[in-house]
């Protein structure tokens, strides 16, 4: 399993992918703000390394995306510089100061005044995080200002423990970034999507805001955790600490997620939150009393690579749910997924499990 994941993560792609190239007509663009606790790289095509930096660095990147491609796919250049007509490339890169963030929110959030924050996962170099988020924001047709928060992942499979430490190290900086967005009059709503190990600093940042600031601002409306690499019991305690006025929470899970299976082995713990079967009694008990949590089970979905860790972004159906429902502040129901094969009926008094093809939606409400 480790070998398969390592090979998938280390596909032969060149370095220096973020070196800006001239834009080409007939392509799409994603205007992205990046905030990172990584150290700066002297290579302008790399921008940031996998080590910790001094403070937070902000950049405004324009990512060009070719139009002739399938939803959920990323066309990385085979050589540098890339070709904007066929590849994902960066066409503009400029550093920003913290004092310039409000201006960026004002110019980018548009009529919706919505901000879409993405926190990447384990084993993710900075350039991969940039292109994955650009793909997701584009394919979801997100009517929102895209903001990437990138913590210092080293991008190596065997650096799991160091990555976890770096993710923890960055949680207060993510909380500070969210406070800046909340304080902006150009921002009405903030949706956070965190992947894999990035779920840890994301949940911790929201929890920290709730505890330190006396509550979570209403602008932070939705917290989406895709393949969350979290202990189930710890997650419940984090949610309880947030209090009753917390954002809506959506979990994308998959029992065939091989990366989370490896994480379970490395941590010598129980099944990770992103790998649970929400129909099992032990997990229904963990969610008992926690309203406002929806579990979307992608275990029957096959998209992207064999690891099944990026289904939230590689599956066209999952991407449509994110863009068409979750980013619009709406709750996903059985009407939003392919026609159901069968309904399992009520679980307890309120929670329902909807069996669909191929997506299952679990509403984690009150369970006796």
End-to-end separation in angstroms reads 38 Å
Q: What's the CATH H-level homologous superfamily?
A: Alpha/Beta hydrolase fold, catalytic domain
Beta fraction: 25-35%
| Order of helical and strand elements | HEEEHEHEHHEHEHEHHEHHEEE
Overall structural class, as computed from helix and strand content, comes to alpha/beta
Tally of DSSP β-strands: 12
Overall pLDDT: 87
CATH topology: Rossmann fold
Helical percent range?
25-40%
- The number of distinct helices, counting runs of at least 4 residues, comes to 11
Number of domains: 1
- Strands of the widest sheet, in order across it, are 3-2-1-5-4-6-7-8-9-12-11-10
CATH class: Alpha Beta
Give the radius of gyration.
Answer: 19 Å
CATH architecture call = 3-Layer(aba) Sandwich
Biggest beta sheet summary: 12 strands, mixed
Overall geometry comes to: globular
């Amino acid at each position: 399993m480790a070998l398969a994941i390592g090979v998938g993560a280390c596909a032969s792609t060149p370095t220096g992918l973020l070196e800006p190239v001239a834009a080409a007509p007939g392509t799409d663009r994603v205007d992205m703000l990046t905030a990172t606790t990584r150290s700066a790289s002297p290579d302008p095509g790399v921008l940031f390394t996998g080590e910790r930096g001094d403070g937070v660095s902000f950049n405004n990147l324009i990512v060009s995306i070719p139009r002739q491609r399938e939803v959920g796919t990323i066309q990385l250049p085979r050589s540098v510089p890339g070709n904007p007509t066929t590849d994902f490339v960066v066409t503009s890169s400029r550093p920003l100061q913290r004092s310039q963030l409000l201006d960026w929110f004002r110019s980018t959030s548009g009529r919706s005044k919505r901000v879409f924050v993405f926190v990447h996962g384990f084993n993710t170099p900075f350039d991969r995080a940039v292109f994955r988020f650009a793909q997701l924001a584009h394919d979801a047709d997100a009517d929102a200002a895209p903001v990437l928060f990138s913590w210092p992942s080293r991008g190596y499979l065997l650096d799991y423990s160091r990555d976890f430490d770096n993710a923890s190290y960055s949680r207060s900086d993510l909380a500070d970034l969210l406070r800046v967005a909340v304080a902006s009059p150009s921002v009405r709503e903030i949706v956070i999507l965190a992947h894999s190990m990035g779920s840890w600093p994301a949940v911790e940042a929201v929890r920290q805001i709730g505890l330190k600031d006396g509550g979570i601002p209403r602008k932070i409306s939705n917290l989406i955790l895709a393949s969350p690499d979290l202990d189930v019991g710890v997650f419940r305690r984090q949610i309880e600490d947030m209090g009753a006025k917390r954002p809506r929470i959506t979990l994308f899970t998959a029992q065939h997620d091989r990366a989370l299976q490896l994480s379970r082995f490395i941590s010598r713990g129980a099944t990770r939150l992103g790998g649970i079967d929400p129909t099992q009694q032990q997990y229904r008990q963990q969610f008992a009393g926690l309203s406002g949590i929806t579990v979307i089970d992608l275990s029957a979905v096959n998209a992207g690579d064999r690891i099944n860790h990026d289904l939230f972004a590689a599956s066209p159906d999952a991407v449509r749910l994110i863009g068409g429902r979750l980013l619009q502040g709406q709750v996903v129901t059985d009407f939003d997924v392919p026609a159901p094969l069968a309904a399992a009926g009520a679980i307890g008094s309120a929670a329902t499990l909807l069996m669909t093809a191929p997506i299952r939606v679990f509403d984690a409400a009150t369970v006796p």
